[in-house]
Design goal:
Helix content: under 10%
Number of strands: 30
Largest sheet: 8 strands, antiparallel
Distance between the termini: 23 Å
Radius of gyration: 25 Å
Low-confidence stretches: 7-24
Oligomer: single chain
Number of helices: 3
Shape: elongated
Mean pLDDT: 90
Structural class: mainly beta
Length: 423
C-alpha cells in the first residue's frame, strides 16, 4: 500500500524570519516548510509499504532566469540532527529506502516557489529491512548554482518511524464544519444511531458557556456546558415539536460526564428507538468504552411529555438565518460563540446503536480497519478521520465511508500532530 503526505506550506518556516530572507537585500533559496524536521510516519498496521512526501523550495524575490534545484544526501549531518532535536539514538536511513540521486526541480523565471517536489520512500513494510523500534533519519541538503541558500534552511531532516494509530487531529478552536447531506436517506428518521469521536478539550469556561461537539440544535445535540452547567460537562440536548408547534425539550447530563482539559477521551453516544417505547429511545453515553450514563429520550414541557424514538438529520445545510431550519454541524450550534475549543479526530456516525463490546473491539477504538475487500461495515454511514484533510483542500475533510459526504470547514483547518495511543 502506498500513502502520500501533503505538506501545508507556510510562507516562511519557524526557522526563517523575514529579516533573514531579505538580509542585505540578497535573494536566497530556502525550504518552504513549517519545520526543518519532517516525520514520515509509517502505518505498519495498514501494511503501508511506500510513502510520498511533498515539499517545496522558495525564494524571497522572483528571478529573471530559471533556478535549477538539486538535492543530495548528507549523512555527515546525523550528529547535528541528534544534538539539535535531542534524539541521540536516531540512525541513518539505510540505503534502498529513498533514492534522491535524480531528484531535481525548477523555480521558473518570475516565480518564487518550485511548487510541490515529491520525495518517495519505499520498502517500508514488515520484513523489508527496517526495525521500527528505531527512528531513522535522512538528511537532505538543497543545492543550486548561481544563487545563495539560506544557511539555516539548507538541510531538511526526514525522520522515518512507525506511526501511532492516530497521528493528526484538527484544532477546532473558532472553526466549525458541516456535511452536505443532500437526499441522503440514511440520516433521515433514524431509529438507531451512534455518534462517536476522539476529543481533547483545550479550554473550558464556566458560567453558562457552551462548547458544541456535534449534531443539530433543538433536535439532537452533543455539547459541553449550558446554563447552570460547568463548561466541561457533556450534555445530550434534544427537542421535539407537537402538532401545535409547541416545543418539548430535555437533556441527558450528569457530573459524571465532566472531562479534564488537555486529555484525550473517546466519546460515544448511542440512540436506540427500535422498540418504539412510550418512554422514548434508550440513550447511552460512553467515555473511553465504559458506560457512564443511560436514560430514556423523553422530552418535556410543563407537566406534559413526548417520547422520542427517532431523529431526522437529513436537513439541508444553511446559515440557519431568516427562518431556515437548524442543520447538522460539528463545532457549531445557535451562534458562532459556541465552538468546540479543542482537538478532534475519528468522528463516526453509524446507523446502529453500537454495543459496549463493539465500542471496545481492538479494531475499533482508535481507528477502523477495512475488511479483506477494502470496505468498512455498511452500518458506518460517515467516517471523518480528520487526518489532514482531503488532498490539499484544507477546508475539507474526507468521508472515508462509502457515503462520501465530505465535511466542509468554515475556515482552513489547523492540523496538530498527535500520537494516540501513546507508545
Amino acid at each position: 500500500m502506498k500513502t502520500k503526505i501533503i505538506a501545508a506550506s507556510l510562507s516562511l518556516s519557524a526557522f526563517i524570519s523575514c529579516s533573514d530572507v531579505n538580509e542585505s537585500f540578497e535573494n536566497k533559496l530556502y525550504f518552504d516548510v513549517d519545520s526543518m524536521q519532517r516525520e514520515v510516519r509509517v502505518a505498519t498496521d495498514e501494511k503501508v509499504e511506500e510513502m510520498t512526501v511533498d515539499f517545496a523550495v522558495a525564494m524571497a524575490k522572483p528571478s529573471d532566469r530559471d533556478i535549477e534545484l538539486s538535492f543530495r544526501e548528507s549523512p555527515e549531518l546525523l550528529e547535528t540532527y541528534r544534538i539539535a532535536y535531542y534524539d541521540p539514538d536516531a540512525e541513518l536511513l539505510p540505503e534502498g529506502h529513498c533514492d534522491i540521486s535524480s531528484l531535481q526541480a525548477v523555480i521558473k523565471a518570475g516565480n518564487v516557489t518550485s511548487g510541490d517536489i515529491a520525495l518517495d520512500f519505499v520498502g517500508l513494510g514488515e520484513g523489508q529491512g527496517l526495525d521500527y523500534e528505531k527512528r531513522y533519519v535522512l538528511p537532505v541538503t538543497l543545492c543550486a548554482d548561481g544563487i545563495e541558500i539560506l544557511e539555516r534552511s539548507r538541510t531538511m531532516y526526514f525522520v522515518v518511524r512507525e506511526a501511532a494509530l492516530v497521528n493528526v487531529a484538527a484544532d477546532m478552536t473558532s472553526n466549525c464544519a458541516w456535511p452536505e447531506w443532500g437526499d441522503f436517506e440514511a440520516v433521515k428518521d433514524m431509529k438507531t444511531f451512534t455518534f462517536e469521536c476522539l476529543v481533547n478539550g483545550q479550554a473550558f469556561k464556566n458560567k453558562s458557556s457552551v462548547h458544541t461537539l456535534m449534531g443539530i440544535e433543538d433536535n439532537f445535540l452533543l455539547r459541553f456546558g449550558d446554563t447552570g452547567l460547568p463548561g466541561n460537562q457533556l450534555q445530550v440536548a434534544y427537542a421535539i415539536y407537537n402538532e401545535e408547534d409547541k416545543r418539548f425539550r430535555h437533556n441527558v447530563t450528569s457530573s459524571v460526564l465532566q472531562i479534564k482539559p488537555d486529555r484525550w477521551y473517546h466519546i460515544a453516544v448511542t440512540f436506540d428507538g427500535s422498540a418504539e417505547s412510550n418512554e422514548g429511545a434508550d440513550i447511552k453515553i460512553y467515555y473511553d468504552g465504559k458506560l457512564k450514563m443511560s436514560e430514556k429520550c423523553l422530552a418535556k414541557e410543563g407537566n406534559s411529555t413526548m417520547p422520542i424514538n427517532s431523529r431526522n438529520f437529513m436537513v439541508a445545510h444553511s446559515d440557519e438565518q431568516d427562518g431556515k431550519p437548524r442543520c447538522f454541524w460539528i463545532g457549531y450550534s445557535y451562534d458562532k460563540d459556541r465552538p468546540f475549543n479543542g482537538l478532534i479526530a475519528e468522528v463516526r456516525v453509524w446507523n446502529k446503536a453500537l454495543t459496549e463490546e463493539e465500542l471496545n473491539a481492538p479494531a475499533h477504538f482508535y481507528k477502523l480497519y477495512r475488511d479483506n475487500d477494502g470496505k468498512y461495515p455498511e452500518s458506518l454511514i460517515a467516517y471523518w478521520k480528520f487526518d489532514g484533510g482531503n488532498g490539499k483542500e484544507l477546508k475539507e475533510v474526507k468521508d472515508h465511508s462509502a457515503s462520501g459526504r465530505n465535511l466542509k470547514g468554515n475556515s482552513n483547518f489547523l492540523w496538530r500532530p498527535v500520537e494516540l495511543p501513546v507508545k
